Input
Amino acid sequence: MITRQHFAIGGIVAVGLLAGNYAHSAGPEASDTAAADHRYADLKEKLGSLLEKYRDNRRKGRAEAQLGPRPFYLVEDMDEGRLKQRLQQCADGPFYRTDFSIGHRGAPLQFPEHTKESYEAAVVMGAGIVECDVTFTKDRELVCRHSQCDLHTTTDILAKPELAAKCSVPFTPADPVAGTPASAKCCTSDITLEEFRTLKGKMDGANSKATTVEGYMAGTADYRTDLYSQNGTLMTHRESIELLKSLKVKFTPELKAPEVDMPYEGDYTQADYASQMIEEYKAAGIDPRKVWPQSFNLEDVLFWVDNYPAFGQQAVYLDGRYADPAFNPMDASTWSPSMTELRADGVKIIAPPTPVLVTLDAEGNIVPSEYARRARAAGLDIITWSLERSGPLANGGGFYFASIADAINNDGDVMNLIHVLAQDVKVIGIFSDWPATVTYYANCANLK
Output
């Protein structure tokens, strides 16, 4: 099997052979010339540099990342300035896997979310941590889905009549005359694990104007693609652990809010659910230091802190308070509990969406919000979500750029946001639907 190591060694050997060829094939007369000496010295220096990089990376166990063209496109699309120049200087790499780059549902900009293929793509692009959103099936098995009830938009369940018949809300076509949209609701809790395994992942989306199942399933956003969605392999939570373990990356499972009444069937409690997720890491022998369990439910986070302290050390409170109309990231009186209260309760990491962490100053520069400053002052680490989920940014970028929309008018502006999040807000990680973008910046800024 040819590995990246072989390519690395091959490159070093090739440069060495070239250096030797220049020294010997030039002949005794040419070898006395300054030009030949310069060529040989230059190649020898390159060989030494390659060898040192190879040895250094072997010592550190660093895994190379393959970024593809997108981050380079984004850098070139930036407005002229010092940051663009600095990022351009990094274009030759090398690029390595980094924990600063977190695969949000894998790499769902182009791959079906929470599939084996999506997770693998995220790792190839340098994500050092990958997310499995965790929910449960009818027979209480944990699986990776963003929502308990999104199978109708993220899988082919509607194309399987025997399973579609089990959906909580069967497919109803749009009625153009009445003006009612097409609809369906299919949940993991509608089917067993065995039935779940028969499904294939597709790009998340639905066509609300559709009058047929086929039309309804063809709802991929224009800025995404169906090129890689033909055979999306769904994952159980256990399978995701084994896959990511084999790929030598870390884990950030999110315990999704159930969309069924809890206790489920009268005896499966929220605590049972929260425990089951952690127990699957313990059963797999995963070091708790490699796991960042997440929840929007503060009680889940505090449960892990109290009952699974080794895992609770890195439990992440996903802050959903931004959805409250009264919430203002520039006014500490509008959020409760306070940052200091959260820290006192044992929370160590908080994770709001990007617009909560940044604002614009009087000159239109992107700067940290009061929320960000208070979190850091209280001793909380910060993770944020999610980049590469907004499509083209020419019109301000939508939700994830809402607090800085006046400073966003081209795709390259995402790099300005990453820069402020990393250097001024000082987040410890960024979720992205296309991890290569964050990986590029992290390597350029020497973030680990």
